[in-house]
Amino acid sequence: MSALAALDRPVTAPNTNRLRGFVTAFADLLAATRDEQAILESGRALLSRLIATDDWLPDEFAQPNPDRYQQYLLHCDSRERFSVVSFVWGPGQSTPIHDHSVWGLIGMLRGVEKVESFRRLPSGALVDEGEELLHEGEVDAVSPRIGDIHRVTNGLSDRPSISIHVYGANIGAVERATYALDGTPKTFISGYANSVIPNLWDRSKQS
Ligand SMILES: [Fe+2]
């Protein structure tokens, strides 16, 4: 960046170059392989690198809502092969038990999530598979192949937590299901909390 450009740029501007690099690398990965295990392994490394530095998420996509958790679309691949969202939890907020239908990677950017995993028997009943905490810098994976049903709660009772998710589809448009404790499914399409997405493509702000 030139000295003049540096003067024009607020020191607090989010480093969206980092997110652009991530989505470009992810598109390259999906062009190279459609093997889910390979995508999850290499994608985990890419997402770990993205969330290792917390300087790139614009504030608009980090805002909690007092009524419910927020899913902000950050990027959707033009062929809907993958999407990237920020998931923002207010204190104490929780999802229903739900599935995803596609592979997903979940990286913890700020705070802590409690993840309760479930397995569904052929009878439709849910089996509790235990819970774990996801801390800053850690990445979790889901897919129908490796386990896809969970309930997620903000692990912090006094402040928001934020995770960055990558899914193998335009996740806000995917028909999937929530589950009652007895395993009864209910279909839903999540949509997104935002109507505009971050501008990752203004290269005049490239550092
Ligand atoms: Fe989930």
From TrEMBL:
Q: Which UniProt keywords apply?
A: Dioxygenase, Iron, Metal-binding, Oxidoreductase
Q: Which SUPFAM superfamilies match?
A: RmlC-like cupins
Recorded GO molecular functions are: ferrous iron binding; oxidoreductase activity, acting on single donors with incorporation of molecular oxygen, incorporation of two atoms of oxygen
Q: Where does Fe cation bind?
A: H98, H100, H150
Q: Domain of life of the organism in this record?
A: Bacteria
Pfam families according to UniProt: CDO_I
| Family as reported in the entry's similarity comment | Belongs to the cysteine dioxygenase family.
Its recorded name reads Cysteine dioxygenase
